[in-house]
Write a structure and sequence with these properties.
The protein folds into two domains: 127 residues, 3-Layer(aba) Sandwich (Rossmann fold), CATH 3.40.50; 184 residues, Rossmann fold (3-Layer(aba) Sandwich), CATH 3.40.50. The termini are far apart. By secondary structure, it is α/β, with parallel strands linked by helices. GO terms for molecular function: phosphorelay response regulator activity; protein-glutamate methylesterase activity; protein-glutamine glutaminase activity.
């Protein structure tokens, strides 16, 4: 695309519209072309202005953001970033929005000036990535992969994802059999959302899905979602080891970091499988390279099925990806790597 990224802000709070507009307009490559206080006005503005990206309030009077998003994705799919309050209800609705095809989510800017400036920078980064994303028309469900007892090696699966990853993980994790090897996942999302994400994924999967807790022994048939926020997630003790959540500075701007998880799994060598899914940036590329050099099987989501072909591209260009596969083929590819 040429020219600045054109953004429509949809939020029922006049003060929040002003905050978002100010944050976005600080970047010369972003143009706020309109602001709508509710979905009916927004619908008319979308038709008239044809924005590149919409930022959408999760909860609004009249028609909530989720209902409006469903209409957008069915009638006129476009990149949407959900803006949510850090509440249980806000998190639940945001996760559903991401499953329905919203590109990303961000907590509404709040706190001290430093925190607001950090959130504003992240929002600008998200908006520009969203403008380059490949939008999907609603959620897809993959056929469940059958259990194949006795054929899987004693391995650990490590997965990294970011932008578009929630929808991808619903598809991939939802297709895994209940006896699959343990799966450790780092998905970039706000801290308030990861517990709800794990609970929702658990309800829709044949495997057990939990938010990771430090010291927990890993076991078959369980997926461990790294908590967002103040800790990195690592594997300690090999294929029969346990999870460690440790504080530390962000790595590549992320905490938890996919790179940290992958580096912790790399010593397992051939007893590890690495998977990198859709996402912006390059988190996970160096860690996956370490895994592959140690003898692990490594898979990357291909460009055609990615919402944002950033993290998989970075890993592929580094030589860290053994094989690229589509999202629809990923569950079987993961299990095949576990059997070899």
């Amino acid at each position: 695309m040429t020219g600045p990224t054109r953004v429509l802000i949809v939020d029922d709070s006049a003060s929040m519209r002003a905050v978002l507009a100010r944050a976005l307009s600080a970047d010369p490559d972003i143009e706020v072309i309109g602001m709508a206080p509710e979905p009916h006005t927004a619908r008319a503005m979308i038709k008239e202005l044809n924005p590149d990206v919409v930022t959408l309030d999760v909860e609004m009077p009249g028609m909530d953001g989720l209902s409006f998003l469903e209409k957008i994705m069915r009638l006129r799919p476009m990149p949407v970033i959900m803006c949510s309050t850090l509440t249980a209800r806000g998190a639940e609705v945001t996760i559903e929005a991401l499953r329905l095809g919203a590109v990303d989510c961000i907590a509404k800017p709040a706190g001290n000036p430093l925190e607001i400036a950090r959130d504003a920078a992240l929002l600008r980064k998200m908006v520009k990535a969203a403008a380059r994303s490949s939008v999907r028309q609603g959620p897809s469900r993959l056929a469940p992969v059958a259990s194949q007892p006795g054929l899987q090696r004693d391995v650990v699966i490590a997965v990294g994802a970011s932008t578009g990853g929630v929808e991808a993980l619903f598809s991939v994790i939802g297709a895994l059999p209940p006896d699959c090897p343990p799966v450790l996942v780092v998905q970039h999302m706000p801290a308030a959302f990861t517990n709800g994400f794990a609970a929702r994924l658990d309800r829709e999967s044949r495997v057990s899905v939990v938010e990771a807790v430090t010291g927990t022994p890993i076991q078959r048939g369980t997926v461990y979602i790294a908590p967002g926020g103040s800790n990195h997630m690592e594997l300690v003790g090999g294929t029969n080891g346990h999870i460690r959540l440790r504080p530390g500075e962000p790595v590549g701007g992320h905490r938890p970091s996919v790179d940290v998880l992958f580096h912790s799994v790399a010593p397992l060598g051939a007893a590890a499988v690495g998977v990198i899914l859709t996402g912006m940036g390059n988190d996970g590329a160096a860690g996956m390279q370490a895994m592959r050099l140690a003898g692990a099987r490594t898979l990357g989501q291909n460009q055609a099925s990615c919402v944002v072909y950033g993290m998989p591209r970075a890993a592929f260009e580094l030589g860290a990806v053994e094989r690229e596969v589509s999202l629809s083929a990923m569950p079987e590819a993961i299990l095949a790597a576990c059997r070899k």
